[in-house]
Amino acid sequence: MAHANRLDAREIPHEQRIDRIFERLRALKPREELELVAPHHPEPLLKKIIETFPRQFDFSPVQKGPVTWRYLFRARPGKDPRNVNDYLAWDHDRLDQLMEKATKQAQAGIWAEAAALAAEFKEGLFRQRQEARRVRALQGHPVGRAG
């Protein structure tokens, strides 16, 4: 699913990418979102964003390769520290909205859009499960296949 505020980094010359991405991120008002489309895993960019804009954005992968990577950034309303539960709650709300939209599209017979939304939901759900397992492991709780 394409988001309304989207930046396709594949269309920006490499030497201008970071500046253009940072420009768009700086322009976001609290709770506004930007979808970034990248031609590769943007891990170095994500680290640079965290260093340059500490606590200013929540972000979540929407599509993870192999050809295209998409991340959704949301400007946070404040710079207060947050915990894992805060982040997971934001992402959980995002997933709830995706499922609701996918269901409505399917009921309307708009199958391609419903499938795209469902795929984005699935990616987020699997990532949430992985994050929950990591948190339990860090807390010293057993982590099994069912959890």
Q: Which helices and strands appear, and what pairs or packs with what?
A:
Elements: E1 6-8, H1 17-27, E2 33-38, H2 43-52, E3 57-64, E4 69-75, H3 84-107, H4 111-138
Parallel strand pairs: 1-2
Antiparallel strand pairs: 2-4, 3-4
Task: Kindly describe this structure.
It is a single chain. With 147 residues, the chain is α+β, with helices and mostly antiparallel strands. The protein has two domains: 1-79, TusA-like domain (Translation Initiation Factor IF3, 2-Layer Sandwich), CATH 3.30.110; 82-141. It is 50% helix and 16% strand. It has four helices and four strands. It has helices at residues 17-27, 43-52, 84-107, 111-138; strands at 6-8, 33-38, 57-64, 69-75. The chain has a four-stranded mixed beta sheet with strand order 1-2-4-3, with helices on both faces. Helix 3 packs antiparallel against helix 4. The longest helix has 28 residues, at 111-138. The protein starts with 5 loop residues before the first strand and ends in a 9-residue tail after the last helix. The relative contact order is 0.12.
